[in-house]
Amino acid sequence: MTDERAHWNERYREREPPTEPSDLLREWVDDLPDGRALDVATGGGRNALFLAEHDYSVDAIDVAEEGLGIARERADERGLSEQIEFVRADVEDHDFPAEAYDAVVVSHYYSLNALPDLKEALAPGGVLLYEHRLHPPDDRSSRFRFRANELLRACLDLRIVRYEEPMGITEDATDVRLVARKPSSE
């Protein structure tokens, strides 16, 4: 078992993952193209469940069996198991299908390495919703957070619909948020 998987399994055993979908997803769900969605680092499945409730066929990927077990239970309780495919895999090593997803949701998972594969997995006209913590300027220990404009620069091959970073990083304002659309092949 990898150290990363062991870390997340232990975290899910100790603490119940959130149940509410991300604010960014909730805000944009009605503007997303219909079809198939990918929920990256699904954890307890909050975003996958919300997408399934909005008639998406969802692939929910996570490295931790514990998180996926919680997500499966929640899907069963809501009658959504048929709409969600749970995938236990490391996002960094997973072979995503090309141009398969109409929406890709990444909520609080940092990976510039996997981002090219996630963008490739977007269908033409597909939308990427990405939110994660921003790196505080005076904190050298936050290696799994984005630096100023880092996510924006990494997605300039997409059409940026919305991008925001807080004016200053505070207890209430820490997230960078991006909504971007893959150009259609038209």
UniProtKB/TrEMBL annotation:
Enzyme class name: transferase
UniProt organism field: Halalkalicoccus tibetensis
Segments of this protein annotated with the region Disordered: 1-23
EC nos: 2.1.1.222, 2.1.1.64
GO molecular function, one term: 2-polyprenyl-6-hydroxyphenol methylase activity
Highest taxon of the lineage: Archaea
Domain (Methyltransferase) ranges: 38-126
Keywords: Methyltransferase, S-adenosyl-L-methionine, Transferase
Transmembrane regions listed in the UniProt entry: none
Entries under CDD domains matching the protein: AdoMet_MTases
GO biological process: methylation
Protein name: Class I SAM-dependent methyltransferase
Pfam families xrefs: Methyltransf_25
